[in-house]
């Protein structure tokens, strides 16, 4: 079995995440995609629009019920005190769960930010990153340290879907529908729990 980890704040998970992760798995031959919601992404500021980890985890679970043969959810980062650093998760998977390799999916916007993640050199050595393109972000290889060039071979051909959690939160806050942007179960959960509403 080939596993592809997919970390994120998933605040909330949306169809951009799911469709692009599935396309990556199909293109690069992964059997399962493991969604790993972060306890508190170090690059995001906590605030009213940041849903509690329990909510974000449950929305990931709801999203995966539509394709359980491909997707699963792992709450590994929610058992550690925040912030969640990917290097800690990668080491936990290798040392505690005895994974031989860790393959980790990121969007192009995150790739450009990767040098600022905790312990980037070690992270690059110990992790096989797989990159998906994302509308609005040109991958500027020359702006990245030379060691990142190896990732050129690991850019997956995925659809370009201009969907973001930020836009979804804004839509909810202004009373707009988020149907078709998130799985139906997630839209229902956001409504039922009054997430992302203004005020
Ligand atoms: P926000 O708008 O709150 O910043 P987001 O939509 O970027 O959220 P995250 O949960 O932060 O969602 O993203 C998790 C991972 O998925 C990141 O690596 C991000 O680059 C990637 N990603 C998110 N949306 C897309 C998309 N539409 N296409 C490709 N990659 C995406």
Give the fraction of residues assigned to helices: 25-40%
CA radius of gyration: 16 Å
Structural category? alpha/beta
Question: What count of structural domains?
Answer: 1
Q: Report the top-level CATH class.
A: Alpha Beta
**Ligands:** adenosine-5'-triphosphate
CATH architecture field: 3-Layer(aba) Sandwich
Q: Could you give me the name of the CATH homologous superfamily? A: HUPs
Low-confidence stretches: none
Count of helical regions: 7
Bin the strand percentage.
Answer: 5-15%
Biggest pleated-sheet summary: 6 strands, parallel
Number of strands: 6
Q: Which fold name is given in CATH as the topology? A: Rossmann fold
Distance between termini? 46 Å
Query: What string, H for helix and E for strand, traces the elements in order?
Result: EHEHEHEHHEEHH
**Could you say which overall geometry the principal axes of the C-alpha atoms support?**
globular
């Amino acid at each position: 079995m080939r596993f592809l980890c997919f970390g994120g704040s998933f605040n909330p998970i949306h169809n951009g995440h799911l469709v692009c992760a599935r396309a990556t798995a199909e293109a690069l031959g992964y059997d399962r995609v493991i969604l790993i919601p972060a306890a508190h992404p170090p690059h995001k500021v906590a605030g009213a629009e940041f849903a509690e980890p329990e909510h974000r985890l449950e929305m990931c679970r709801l999203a995966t019920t539509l394709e359980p043969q491909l997707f699963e959810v792992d709450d590994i980062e929610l058992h550690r005190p925040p912030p969640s650093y990917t290097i800690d998760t990668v080491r936990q998977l290798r040392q505690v769960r005895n994974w031989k390799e860790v393959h980790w999916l990121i969007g192009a916007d995150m790739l450009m930010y990767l040098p600022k993640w905790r312990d980037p050199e070690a992270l690059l050595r110990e992790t096989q990153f797989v990159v998906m393109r994302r509308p609005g972000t040109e991958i500027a290889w020359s702006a990245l340290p030379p060691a990142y060039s190896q990732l050129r071979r690991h850019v997956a051909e995925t659809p370009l879907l201009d969907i973001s959690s930020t836009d979804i939160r804004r839509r909810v806050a202004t009373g707009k529908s988020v149907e078709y942007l998130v799985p139906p179960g997630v839209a229902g959960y956001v409504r039922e729990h009054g997430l992302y509403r203004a005020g």
